[in-house]
Amino acid sequence: MVWSAADAPMYLGIAADSMAVGMDGRRFSSEEGISMLDPWKAGPNYYSIWSKDQLDKVKENGFHQNFDTVPPSAFLGFCGSIPEGEPLPELYDVLGKAEEMGFVWQADSIGELADKIGVPADNLKTEVDNYNKYAQTGTDEEFGKPAEDLTAFGDGPYYAIKMASYSYNTVAGLDINDKMQVLDTDGNPIEGLYAVGSDSAGVLFSEKKPYVTFGGINNGWALTSGYIAGVTVADFVNGTDNAADILNSEVLKAQ
After folding, report:
1. pTM of the model
2. Long-range own/partner contacts, residues 218-226 (CB < 8 A, 24 or more apart)
3. CA 185 to CA 179: how far, in whole Å?
4. Which DSSP state fits 82?
5. Could you report the per-residue pLDDT of 85-114, keeping only the tens digit for each?
6. Are residues 134 and 149 in contact, defined by beta-carbon separation less than 8 angstroms?
7. How far is residue 45's CA from residue 34's CA, in Å, rounded to a whole number?
8. What are the tens digits of pLDDT across the range 209-254?
């Protein structure tokens, strides 16, 4: 198993006992879900917020890892995972380098941190206050995160780690219509050009609504899009319009 302290920022960004906010400074999910299928809810990026009190505990005692909800870093493309409870004496050195690289920020107050990362300060302050209350009561009133993963912030300075939303699939940026025809930059179909599977899977997710919220979407989309494209291409060759019947069928609508 291969790991290093340099993996720490990524771990902080997916930790179940962290607090994560979107680009509006609001929580968007139970943080148990940000290591799996929930980051899309935040849009292109989200921020994991930590206090020095919390980070000191990570430095001395390592990460608390609930592997029922948070996978090891190997699941996100690394070669190994930081062992649970492994002290990380280099933690602040790593965060300092990450700050120099521009994806970690620190500030003496939550308001100052909000200004640095460009989110509304009132929103972030409210989320921190609410999160501290949930940690004290053991009840996450917004997203129902278990009490064992609710950790009060404590004293600063405060840190933000910028994370990128992701999907467990290579999702290309080709836009398509419901007949799998590739669209040009004006939204018009390009005659004779179709895209299926991962090349067009980007149409299934946005920061507002996902097509599905569980793994295996690439498999289902490959089958469905391939079938529709096959009929569409046959229509193009034969001058028919069978695809319209399929798209309007109750069977497909139920998928």
Report:
1. 0.74
2. 218/168, 218/169, 220/255, 221/197, 222/196, 222/197, 222/198, 224/252, 224/255, 225/180, 225/195, 225/196, 225/197, 225/200, 226/196, 226/197
3. 17
4. P
5. 889 999 999 999 999 999 999 999 999 999
6. no
7. 12
8. 666 666 677 788 889 899 999 999 998 888 887 777 766 655 455 4
